[in-house]
Amino acid sequence: MRKQIEGSRAVAEAIAMCRPEVICAYPISPQTHIVEALGVMVKSEAVRPCEFINVESEFAAMSVAIGSSAAGARSYTATSSQGLLYMAEAVYNAAGLGLPIVMTLANRAVGAPINIWNDHSDAMALRDAGWIQLFAETNQEAVDLHIQAFRLAEALSLPVMVCMDGFILTHAVEPIDVPSQAEVDAFLPVFTPRQVLDPSAPVSIGAMVGPEAFTEVRYLAYALHREALERIPEVAIEFSSRFERRAGGLLNADVNGADETVVVAMGSVLGTIRDAVDELRVQGLPIGVVGITTYRPFPADALRAALRGARRVVVLEKALAAGSGGMLGADVELALQGLPIQTSTVIAGLGGRPILKASLRRLLESADRGVLPPLTFLDLNTQVVGQQLERVEAQGTPR
Amino acid sequence: MVVQVRIHGRGGQGVVTAAEMLSVAAFIEGRYAQAFPSFGSERTGAPVVAFCRISDREIRTREPIIEPDALIIQDPTLLHSVDLFNGLHPEAYILINSSRSFDELGLTEFVRGFRPERLLTLPATELALKHVGRPMPNAVLLAGFAAMSGVVSVGSVISAIRERFSGSVAQGNVAAAEAARVFVEHAMESLAHA
């Protein structure tokens, strides 16, 4: 049913229809509205059988999800920012143990300085924890990705993190087609766990693995992610045929053969980028867009195929590796290795800085002219950073 | 065509709810709408901004509204403390919650060149107090905005109010919305005869 509702509310309704048996979460902005809504639904028995477990921290939230998933219950949690970092150890464990937990990450910057607004620093910090990471472009896609996430997680026995931009998506009210319970039930079968902790048939999971086999265990995780690259598009195609709309998959490319410059990005900023690109195309600029929906496993082959005809690739990303530059940019460069394509990374939207269409147009026009440097910070106030750098230099550094 | 509305007020005045209800009114009319708050300032009394875009086509952009086609100002005490009019063009609508006129509010110079039939003050807090019993001007202003601009119909605003509220709060807000419609129609008539 089509409704005009808040993204968080829509995601909560979608999660409820996935029939989770255990939900545990600790509140943190901007994730809060999702778990608040789910808490009400569990209490009113709109979702049942389901246990909503109040925990004392994010570390406990993920630990409880690990326990409940290992006991065979479909398990869900949600967090943001420092909340994800606080649960980091357990996040790795969930992946290592092969537990099909689904978690919403309402993307938010990571302190210090403290900042509650959106960027992708949280997701990027744990990009290599072994989870599948999917990024929603719209609230409709956030709803649809969550439904696909349980299917993928349980088919692969891997946890899935659905990333949706904090505030920009979680707090936006827009039209969303929320599927019916019958539709979700037809798409998402009852959870049949691959391994269950059961006192009547005791097994150990997560026993210590020594140097003689740890590499092999890790290799199998790598192989499982390779398999996920096959499964993710299959699930997206099945979803599209049942629900009659596109959602999920590896990439969402809008590239014509003649496009010389292609922008690559993840999440909600793609909407603004698509508007800017359409305007520039009308002016005759050969520019295309590739949205990355699946960030982990990284769809290097699909991306290479989508970008093969481009001369320049502009990677716009909402996170910064302080000692290196762009993280998505580095992944894209690796995928394009050996091709005659110039890549530039643009760091944008940090800590909630709005990404304006006018700024994107200027950026893409310079990319089209071939004058975009390898690394830029969109709308950086150069006067402020210049003064600060001068001041630091004037003070001198003790050696 | 896209209509971009920016709503200014203070935390606790239902600014975010207003943007949401406006988007619901447009949705009821079968149009696309996107409402979102300026995030993070959720403290009672602090200046709050919320945005609503209405369009006949799917809305993809996520940027805040920089150049609004309409301003709804829920709290006139913000007039001289916050840069409310940033990015405003002279074709824009301005609706202010006040029982005073634009002249009395000291805005004569600012609105020179704007279209007089798109400028209005509406005593929304008084109407809310009278009909709802609480100083919540948001729904009243939406009805006033609908009556003034026709961007959405007053009927759709009333449907959105009924979706959002229930019982006596819904009834009171609907009565206040009707009163706002009458107020705006009179104001428009006297302007036409002026």
Notes on the protein architecture:
The complex is a heterodimer of chains A (399) and B (194). Chain A has 399 residues and is α/β, with parallel strands linked by helices. In chain A, 42% of the residues lie in helices and 18% in strands. In chain A, β14, α13 (357-368) and β15 form a beta-alpha-beta unit. In chain A, α10 crosses α13 (357-368). Chain A binds chain B through residues 4, 6, 30, 116-117, 165, 167-168, 171-175, 268-269, 271-272, 274-275, 352, 354-357, and chain B through 19-20, 23-24, 27, 32-37, 39-40, 59-64, 66.
CATH architecture of chain B: 3-Layer(aba) Sandwich
Structural class of chain B: alpha/beta
- Give the termini separation of chain B: 32 Å
Main beta-sheet strand count, sense and barrel state of chain B: 6 strands, mixed
The percent range for helix content of chain A is 40-55%
Shape of chain B: globular
CATH class annotation of the largest domain in chain A: Alpha Beta
Number of domains of chain A: 2
> Helical residue percent of chain B?
25-40%
Q: Provide the β-strand percentage band of chain B.
A: 15-25%
The mean pLDDT of chain B is 94
Order of helices and strands of chain B: EHEEEEEHHHH
Continuous helix count of chain A = 14
- Tell me which protein chains meet in the greatest interface and how many residues each side has: A-B, 24 and 20 residues
* Strand line-up across the major sheet of chain A: 3-2-4-5-7-6-12
Considering the chains and any ligands shown, give keywords for the structure.
A: 399 residues, alpha/beta, Rossmann fold, 2 domains, 14 helices, globular, B: 194 residues, Pyruvate-ferredoxin Oxidoreductase, domain 3, 6-stranded mixed beta sheet, 5 helices, 37% helix
What is the strand and helix layout of this fold?
The complex is a heterodimer of chains A (399) and B (194).
Chain A lengths: L1 E5 H11 L4 E4 L6 H12 L7 E4 L3 H13 L4 E5 L1 H6 L1 H9 L5 E6 L13 H5 L6 E4 L3 H18 L3 E6 L7 E5 L3 H7 L26 H30 L7 E4 L6 E5 L3 H14 L4 E6 L1 E3 L3 H8 L4 E6 L9 H9 L6 E6 L9 H12 L6 E3 L4 H14 L4
Helix pairs in contact in A: 1-2, 1-7, 3-5, 7-9, 10-13, 11-12
Chain B lengths: L1 E9 L4 H14 L3 E6 L9 E9 L14 E4 L19 E5 L21 E4 L1 H8 L6 H12 L4 H11 L2 H27 L1
Parallel strand pairs in B: 1-4, 4-5, 5-6
Antiparallel strand pairs in B: 1-3, 2-3
